[in-house]
Amino acid sequence: MTAMNVGIRTAFLLGLSVLWSAASHGAEPAGAEFNEEVVKQDRIYHSRGAQTATGYTVDRALLIYADGLASGFERALADLGPADRWLDIGAGEGQAVLDYYTPGYDLAHPQGRERRGRKAQAVAISIEDRRTRLWDLSAGTLEPNQIQYLFGRRMSQYSLEELGKFQLITDVIGGFSYTDGLSRFMEKVLGLLDVNGSFYTALQDVQWEDGSNRPFYPGAPFLTRIIDAAGADMKVCAWLKRIACVEVTCEAKPQWQPPLEAFHVRKVCNEVAVPAVETVHYQAGTPPERRFQLRQ
Ligand SMILES: C[S@@+](CC[C@H](N)C(=O)[O-])C[C@H]1O[C@@H](n2cnc3c(N)ncnc32)[C@H](O)[C@@H]1O
After folding, report:
1. What separation in Å is there between the alpha carbon of 45 and the centre of ligand 1?
2. What percent of the chain has pLDDT over 70?
3. Does ligand 1 have an atom closer than 6 angstroms to the CB of 56?
4. What is the pLDDT of residue 115?
5. Cα–Cα distance between 187 and 165 in angstroms, integer?
6. Which of 120, 141, 190, 238 would staple 80 via disulfide (CB 3.0–4.6 Å)?
7. What is the rounded distance in angstroms from the CA atom of residue 70 to the CA atom of residue 142?
């Protein structure tokens, strides 16, 4: 088993299953049940110490990122130069970012070391402030603004003017797994990515591109589902491949528990168009259970 926690899904999949009529709502469902789940989800984000929600992992090391993300991620990070920028969405404690700046990282990644020089600038984003003493100490030893930690807002609440462009964006069981607005989230990510830049992310317990896996928890659906306008299941990989101006590869990671699918989304031109989905089901959890429906 990898170092990833086995998600104890049932622990936070509490209360009523929340269903919304896709016809009667916009991109995000309205209504008391949805609001209730949002409140529960917010409690999970802000849970601390012994009260931390079961399965809510906030300290994955860079090695774990490399194991969970698509092949190519390690090389993409090692190849960033000092003028480049890396954004980690849903960074938790920011351990992966800290690992990148250690001498141990350079020893383990001799390729690209010359080019890297002082290394890229990194921005870590989290809803809740999970900075540790180690973060503060490391930030103090680096150039001003070499690493930045932003918190207090969701990804969708930042503008391009505030954040600027990035050559590499990662998300390891962060915003992509937790958002209640999947197409809005992807639009934001791709808007922040430079042409030829890459977004590396992954989802737990999702139908793989080749359709060979079944939901991890007996009797439960996949954690993230997309259904088309007629109500038939559509793989997340297939949805990503329908985005204009990107090249997408999808990689199953059966060794993780629950198993993952890792996605590499490379932006190839500026005229990005993300097929809109609306949220028809959202149940708080670590991560939440979500169902989205393709519009049209
Ligand atoms: C389970 S933790 C994962 C932390 C880290 N990536 C790791 O693997 O250790 C989820 C992180 O995603 C963040 N997050 C969830 N939804 C988000 C959103 N829409 N925008 C930005 N961050 C989000 C949370 O605040 C938290 O930092």
Report:
1. 8
2. 90
3. yes
4. 77
5. 14
6. 120
7. 29
